[in-house]
Design goal:
By secondary structure, the protein is mainly alpha-helical. Helices cover 55% and strands 9% of the residues. A hairpin with a 2-residue loop joins strand 2 and strand 3. Helix 5 crosses helix 6. It is flat, with a radius of gyration of 19 Å. It starts with 10 loop residues before the first helix and ends with a helix.
C-alpha cells in the first residue's frame, strides 16, 4: 500500500483487509481487524511510554484511549485515502467512521501477518508519533471532563439514562441521555461507552455556551 510505504508480499491479505462484511459475510476484514486492534494498541502504548516518561498511568491511559479511538482511526484512514479503497455494503451517516476505523485496523493486521510485528509497529509509530505529540497536556475523556465541570459548580453528578438499543441485533445502536445542571443531551454509538461519551460531549457543548 503506497500511502503506508509498504508493499505486500501477499496482496490477498490487503484485499481481505479492504473488504467489509456487508460485501462478503464469509470472507471479510473482521478477523484482520481483531489482530490489527491488538498491534495498534500495543504499539501506541509503547510509543506513549517512551514519549511521556513523567506521566502517570491515568494520563497515559487517556492519551491511549484518544489515539486508538474510532474517530482518530477514521481520520488517519481518510488521510491515507482508504475511503476510496475499502469495499463496503453500506457506509452512510454514523457508519462511515466505524467502517473506516475497522478497515484501518484490518490493514494494520494484514501488514502484521504479511511482514511481522516490527514492520507493522514501525509504520504505526511513523503515523502516530505526530498525533501523540499534538497534545502537550494529557486529554480528559468527555465523561470525566463533564463530571469535573459539574462538581466544580457544586451540583449533583451527571445522570445517564440508557435506552433500549435500536437497529439489527448483530449491529445495535445504543442511545443514551445525560442530564446535569438542568440541561440534557443525547448521544448514540455502537456501544454503551461510545454512546455515553457522545452524550457527555454534547452536554459539555451546551453547558459551555
Amino acid at each position: 500500500m503506497s500511502e503506508l510505504k509498504y508493499k505486500f508480499k501477499n496482496i490477498e491479505l490487503l484485499n481481505l483487509a479492504l473488504t467489509q462484511s456487508g460485501v462478503d459475510s464469509a470472507h471479510n476484514n473482521e478477523r484482520l481487524e481483531f489482530v490489527g486492534d491488538r498491534v495498534l494498541g500495543l504499539t501506541v502504548a509503547r510509543l506513549l511510554y517512551d514519549m511521556f516518561p513523567n506521566e502517570s498511568e491515568g494520563d497515559l491511559a487517556r492519551r491511549h484511549a484518544m489515539l486508538v479511538s474510532a474517530e482518530t482511526l477514521a481520520r488517519v484512514a481518510n488521510d491515507l485515502g482508504l475511503e476510496n479503497k475499502i469495499r463496503h455494503g453500506h457506509m452512510t451517516g454514523g457508519r462511515i467512521q466505524n467502517v473506516l476505523a475497522d478497515g484501518m485496523e484490518a490493514v494494520f493486521g494484514a501488514i502484521f501477518l504479511d511482514g511481522g510485528f516490527d514492520v507493522a509497529s514501525q509504520i504505526i509509530m511513523d503515523i502516530w508519533r505526530n498525533l501523540a505529540a499534538a497534545d502537550v497536556v494529557a486529554p480528559k475523556d468527555a465523561k470525566t471532563a463533564l463530571q469535573e465541570f459539574v462538581q466544580a459548580r457544586g451540583a449533583k453528578l451527571p445522570e445517564y439514562v440508557y435506552d433500549v438499543p435500536t437497529g439489527a441485533s448483530h449491529n445495535p445502536v445504543f442511545n443514551v441521555t445525560v442530564s446535569a445542571l438542568g440541561k440534557t443531551a443525547c448521544g448514540t454509538g455502537t456501544s454503551k461507552k461510545a454512546a455515553s461519551t457522545a452524550a457527555a460531549q454534547e452536554l459539555l457543548k451546551i453547558l459551555a455556551i
